[in-house]
């Protein structure tokens, strides 16, 4: 059974930081690209960052700098460090597992809410 479970969201003041965690199981970890997406109210879901098994990382447009993705292959986990949070970072953050080759199966977590407000 596949599980993708995010944690670490919450209410943060502007300028603060958060570390989101995603733990996954039920699929061949090395075959999957792990990514963070976010979806703000009334907006489309957008890519924040991706991490490949071998260490390569990519970031979505305008995401480089304040967002840092990391991956612990021994723990089958991926993390997103978000610094200098802004109100416009308020969104539901989703963890995604996408098969790198073959049918490119996608798995999604249920999301974790991040609210940036004073």
Description:
The model has no long low-confidence stretch (mean pLDDT 96). Helix content is 0%, strand content 53%. Strands 2, 4, 5, 6, 9, 10 and 11 form a seven-stranded mixed beta sheet that branches. A four-stranded antiparallel beta sheet has the order 1-3-8-7, with no helix packed on it. The N and C termini lie far apart (40 Å). The chain is mainly beta and 118 residues long. It has no helices and eleven strands. It is globular and about 45 Å long.
Secondary structure layout plus pairing:
Layout (H helix, E strand, L loop, with lengths): L2 E5 L2 E3 L5 E8 L6 E8 L6 E6 L5 E3 L7 E6 L4 E6 L8 E9 L6 E3 L3 E5 L2
Parallel strand pairs: 2-11
Antiparallel strand pairs: 1-3, 3-8, 4-5, 4-9, 5-6, 7-8, 9-10, 9-11
Q: What brief labels describe this structure?
A:
single chain, 118 residues, seven-stranded mixed sheet, four-stranded antiparallel sheet, 11 strands, 0% helix, 53% strand
Rg, please?
A: 14 Å
Strand-pairing-aware structural class: mainly beta
- Rough shape? globular
Mean pLDDT: 96
| Low-pLDDT runs | none
End-to-end distance, in Å? 40 Å
- Looking at how many chains there are and whether they match, the oligomeric state comes to single chain
Strand % is over 45%
